[in-house]
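Students often ask why inverse folding is considered easier than folding. One informal answer: many sequences map to the same fold, so there is more than one right answer. In these notes we will look at a single instance of the problem. The structure comes first.
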């Protein structure tokens, strides 16, 4: 049987169900211009992916396999592959955002599509209410998820023997409609420039777990303090699949045996599943409100001030500077920034979501959209509009010694806030009450 193994959000060899598919195989990765063209040429994520591919290619070679790299519309790539040879099917793990679902549907008309489950702990229909509809509130989802969780969710996929199909593995194959060219394998060939990545972005996920082991016991308390390096930093690895979610769960099991309370960390991983499940069942959430219909008030000056870290609110400007300079932002700072954006500046959450999507290294449609809707009070969370974070009390509590702010703000930073917190909060409450 001749099969195409399509790597997408699973850029690794360890514990990868694609490597358990028997037969003659052509492992491939496709750089999709629909995803790449809107990005800036110095997008850090492309550097991360490129590095991960180089790593994947050499790990596959060590197993007598390889990786063929393409640049082009997936439909053009599959059309070209099928014109030049015959394949029984394409195997890939499920990718659930709207674009991915549409793309896979198009490919499934060209060749048999075999899905393997990989990216999340649960399949999208695995944790449902008794009436078979999806949960909309996290806690009941979490409680049900715990009852469903079993040894299958931590299963480790070990590779079977696969024979590599003869192919040109030393070039990037570029397809533009019917036009076919070959390019050297380099980031410049796909029109990007190599970027300097942060220490965390250069670390392997296993190094991250190793370093996180000593922090896990204090995770519940420390995770909110932005100057502490107290979280796992695994979001980018889970996004691109440089580690399998099951490997993280097996690691959690080992920590549990040592007597550490692993529940709070496990809960966050379930959050990731919850958001993915929601976007799968309610794809309109990507752009539309769910529960409340607050549209926000467009204001280009406020938006520009936010995106250039010039709001005059130190913790918000520090967060945006961290994002622009590294592609990272601490979770609590993300919450403070998103609350300030949607409540104090009353801007449409979709604008903030798009700004984060452009810059976050770990950008994931489901987690980003649902988190922004949570902050705006428009999403599935029954907690309505009146949750407004005070950025000053948040800073006092979680960045008491100003370590985080000093790290990210320039020495000549002067805070003249573009809005007064109290007044803008009152204005927001009035706006939301009137809109309801
Ligand atoms: C406005 C806003 C936007 C966000 N956008 C994204 C995004 O695009 N991509 C993304 O992965 N996360 C997003 N998050 C969630 C969270 O901020 C990051 O997952 C977390 O900061 C990553 O750091 P970590 O890996 O050290 O997390 P840890 O605290 O170590 O958590 C472990 C893992 O659990 C998952 N996780 C943790 N918190 C959350 C959460 N609140 N929601 C969903 N999953 C979570 C992540 O996969 C994370 O890697 C967003 C949060 C907010 C408030």
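Output (designed amino acids):
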């Amino acid at each position: 049987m001749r099969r195409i193994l399509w790597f997408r959000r699973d850029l690794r060899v360890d514990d990868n169900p694609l490597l358990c598919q028997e037969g003659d195989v052509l492992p491939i990765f496709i750089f999709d211009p629909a995803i790449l063209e809107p990005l800036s040429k110095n997008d850090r994520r492309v550097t991360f992916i490129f590095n991960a591919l180089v790593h994947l290619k050499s790990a596959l070679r060590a197993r007598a396999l390889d990786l063929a790299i393409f640049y082009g519309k997936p439909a053009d790539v599959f059309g070209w592959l099928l014109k030049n040879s015959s394949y029984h099917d394409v195997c890939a793990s499920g990718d659930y955002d709207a674009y991915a679902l549409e793309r896979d549907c198009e490919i499934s008309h060209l060749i048999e599509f075999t899905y393997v489950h990989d990216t999340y702990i649960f399949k999208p229909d695995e944790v449902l209410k008794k009436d078979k509809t999806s949960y909309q509130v996290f806690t009941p989802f979490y409680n049900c998820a715990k009852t469903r969780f079993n040894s299958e969710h931590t299963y480790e996929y070990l590779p079977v023997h696969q024979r590599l199909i003869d192919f040109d593995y030393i070039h990037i194959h570029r397809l533009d409609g019917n036009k076919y060219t070959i390019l050297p394998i380099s980031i410049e060939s796909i029109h990007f420039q190599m970027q300097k990545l942060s220490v965390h972005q250069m670390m392997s996920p296993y190094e991250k777990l190793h370093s996180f082991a000593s922090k896990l016991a204090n995770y519940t308390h420390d995770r909110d303090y932005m100057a502490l390096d107290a979280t796992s930093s695994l979001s980018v690895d889970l996004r691109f699949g440089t580690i399998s979610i099951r490997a993280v769960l097996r690691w959690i099991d080992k920590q549990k045996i040592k007597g550490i309370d692993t529940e709070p960390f496990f809960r966050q991983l379930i959050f990731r599943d919850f958001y993915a499940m929601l976007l799968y069942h309610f794809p309109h959430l990507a752009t539309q409100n769910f529960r409340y219909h607050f549209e926000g008030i467009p204001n280009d000056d406020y938006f520009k001030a936010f995106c250039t870290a010039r709001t005059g609110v130190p913790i918000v400007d520090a967060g945006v500077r961290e994002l622009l300079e590294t592609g990272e932002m601490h979770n609590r700072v993300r919450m403070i920034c998103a609350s300030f954006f949607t409540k104090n500046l009353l801007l449409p959450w979709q604008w903030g979501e798009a700004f984060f999507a452009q810059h976050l290294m770990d950008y994931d449609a489901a987690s980003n959209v649902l988190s922004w809707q949570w902050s705006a009070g428009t999403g599935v969370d029954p907690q309505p509009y009146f949750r407004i974070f005070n950025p000053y009390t948040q800073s006092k509590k979680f960045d008491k010694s100003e370590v985080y702010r000093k790290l990210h703000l320039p020495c000549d930073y002067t805070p003249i806030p573009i809005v007064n917190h109290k007044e803008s909060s009152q204005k927001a409450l009035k706006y939301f009450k009137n809109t309801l």
